[in-house]
Amino acid sequence: MTRKPVDTGDPDRLYTVTGGRSRADESFDLVTLIVSESGPVPGMQSEHARILELCRHPIAVVEVAAELGLPVMVVRILLGDLLDTGRITARHPRAAPSVASLPDSALLQEVLHGLRNL
Questions:
Q1: Cα–Cα distance between 68 and 82 in angstroms, integer?
Q2: N or C: which end of the chain has fewer CB within 10 A?
Q3: How does 23-56 read in b/e, with b if 16+ C-beta sit within 10 Å?
Q4: What is the per-residue pLDDT across 35-57, written as a single tens digit (0 to 9) for each?
C-alpha cells in the first residue's frame, strides 16, 4: 500500500491562507475541542467562516483539519486567529486522574455484581 504525503496543499495557497505566518498557537493540540461562539460574518476569510460552521458542535482540531483538507499546522494558525477575536472557545482535554483518585476495585466489583443481578 502506497501512502500519500500528509501535506498535499499548494505552498502558495497555504502561504496566502495563513498570511505568511508559520508559527501556530501552542495551545491547540490534536484533540483540543473547538466550539464556535459566533457565526461567520460578511468579508471574513473563507477558511475562518468554514471553521465557524464546522465548530457549531464541539469538534477536535484534527477533525477540523481533515474536513478542510488543510495541514494541522495551518488549521492551528487559523484557530489562533479566531481564538484571539473571541469567535471560538478551546476545550482542552483533562489530564488523566491519578491512580489514588480512582474508585476502589472492590467497590467496582460490587457495582458490577449488582448490575449483573438486575
A1: 16
A2: N
A3: ebeeebeeebbbebeeebeeebeebbebbbeebe
A4: 999 888 898 888 899 999 999 99
